[in-house]
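Anyone able to model this chain together with manganese (II) ion?
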Amino acid sequence: MPTYKAISPNELLEIKEAYTELFDKVSPKFKGDDEENINEAFELALEAHGEQRRKSGEPYIMHPIEVARICFEEIGLGPTAVIGAILHDVVEDTQISQSDILDKFGPKVSKIVDGLTKIDGLYNNESSPQAANLKKVLSTLVEDVRVILIKLADRLHNMRTIDSMPRHKQIGIAAETSYIYVPLAHRLGLYNIKKEIEDIILKIKEPEDYNYIISKIKETEGDRKNYIQDFFKPLSAKLDKLKEDTNGRYKYMASENGDEALTFDYRILGRTKAVSSIYNKLKTKKVPFEKIYDLFAIRIIADVPIEEEKQICWQIYSIVTDVYKPIPERLKDWITSPKGNGYESLHTTVIGPEGRYVEVQVRTERMDEIAEKGFAAHWKYKGVNTSNNVYDRWLNNIREILDTQHSDAIEFLNDFKTNLFSEEVYVFTPNGDMRVLPKGATALDFAFDIHSDLGYKTTAIKVNNKIVPMGYKLQNGDQLEIITSKNQKPSESWLKMVVTGKARSKIRASMKEDRRAKGILGKEALERKLRNMKVGFDENVDLIVKHFGYQSRPDLYFDISNDDFKMAELKVFTVENQRLVAPAKEPPKGNPAPTDEQTKTSPKSAKTKISTNILVNDEPIDQYKYDFARCCKPVQGDPIFAYLTSENSLKIHRLNCTNAENLLMKYGYRVLKAEWTRLGNSEFIAELMIKGVDSGVGVIQTLTNVISNDLQLNMRSFSIKGKEGYFEGLISVLVKNKDQLKLAMDAIEKLDGIYEISRVEK
Ligand code: MN
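re: yes, here you go
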């Protein structure tokens, strides 16, 4: 236990102030003994955390207070959750026990704190793969969703204050957060929190790009404001009955023809997209910042009674599209069918001033609150419309997956990712009943979703009256008809045609059952045969298994019943004293036993390795066998990490390698901190993709000249393909470090005819 500096009187004052502020905010919601409990929770947490401090030096108690505030203000949870949040770290980090909490605060709070304690410190547990952690997170989630919401608030605060953590921890936390918490925030509809967390993750992983985008957003802010004003001007002109209210709110006094007066307030927002989504655009579309037109969306939020929501949203839509031409295929009506996470809104893209595409989102205050705060806000409006069971359905899905047997943790993760983090697809039965399946689900999944017996007997599937393969991926609006046959039986290949956990586990169970039934027949046949040969069963069967190279008795029985093993083969044995005796030198038949011919070829690492200057866990890398990952080819100066392979050698990856997140998450315990030392005379292979036009003046010639003569770089390979003047080239060069590579790339980019140069990521 580290020793801490005592809390100073000044700090105590600050703590009390922060708590009082929280108390005042929550107090209007108090019921029963909430007031007493919240005070008691604070006193207990204050006492229990005592002199503990956070990495930042702040008294620890400030953290639970802030988490409680986030729960209340940013997620919209009530007093019980606030009390749980104040206590969320006491059982984990202090002397207070779970039964103390139960005694003082009763079963509700105690259950929440217990759940939070169980899922705490996931990343610290380095020997445990992440899948098991996720399973833990989910089991607490189905017990009380508040647990996971408080956990998200906790993670959000930790992310907001992550600057005080050492860099390698930041990376680990970022990886875990992006793997588990970002999708959860998405699925629970906590859009604001998701956006903020994703931006912090980007800041950790790609600080340069992050800062670049932030500065660009600031730089262009004025232009954007002007543009949004220009956009809105003809709208307000068109709706001349619209009156501006003092707070920048507007009042729509009457409809255009003057009768049917609709009175409602609304407000307009120009919202900039998340930094991370701009980043993804820059990377995937490879366009410069200036060319991204959908940096922002215009949001029109109407404050109207629930009964009129749909009508008024469509009315606003029609006003907007009277002025600006809409792009029809970009119309998304999530009011009629809300998204799987409860999101409701009407989206369209129109051609705005200067011919730019502008996304317009129309929604009501209620929809907006749900979109921003998600789950908790959703429950506030429970009973409003049919979409309210989306969470119930989701929670049921989680329960189902947790109950499903998975062959390993990775399969569980995959199952979870496809079934729960994904959006949904809506399809119909022949009677027109709607079924909701995870996006990516297949026609065969649909059959199992209707009923497992229907799934087992499926022989063909019609979608919109046409026969499709059973693995056909469902599209919204498809109408499906299942054709069955009594004699049909699932086979191994079916597993490749389904994605839902339900279908998979049913197919597997059926195959197991099939195997078991066949096994009994096979065993009986063998018993009969051995009886005829006048030898005992039990004392001889293992000899047969071994002789023919089977892994186990059931495998042999199964082959016998399938006629893959012929009884005649038993003739190789001779019978002595009622026992089988194996022939002297007969080569094994049937399934060959694994021959243990592990090809222990050490990959060319030793040869291609150039002496380098890397520290792994602060020690020179030379003591390890190591190699640079071929997927991302790090050069000196790139942020890197080392990954311990199953052959006990190290692979050095770039931190932004496309495989990194996966490795960090699934095998976090194999990841070692790695960094470059300053000194170094090594060279690295970097691969560059160059695109441009060769207008006949020999760009390619110039290019090679510049690289080998001006830049004095050693070119390892060069391949180029082109068509009608346009060319794409792949060049590998040897460079000393990231700076030299950047200089080279800048120089090449400046050449006439080159319009894009990038480092090959994969
Ligand atoms: Mn915490």
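The two ends are 45 Å apart (CA to CA).
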